[in-house]
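Lab manual, section 2.4: Encoding a predicted structure.

Procedure: take the sequence of the chain (49 residues), apply the prediction step described in section 2.3, and record the output as structure tokens. A sample record is shown.
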Amino acid sequence: MTDAEKLRIIEMENERLMEENKKLHKVIERLNQTLNRLLGRYISVDRIA
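Recorded output:
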């Protein structure tokens, strides 16, 4: 395997990892939004009770 082939494989893996990282950040963002909504409901229900 030549250095150019090794470099291309590494670049492809890097691209794949960057895409996976973007997906994970979106999941974390959605989880954070859900948590904030749940906390908001919990706090508002707690104030009523």
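Check your result against the sample. Residues 3-48 form the longest helix (46 residues).
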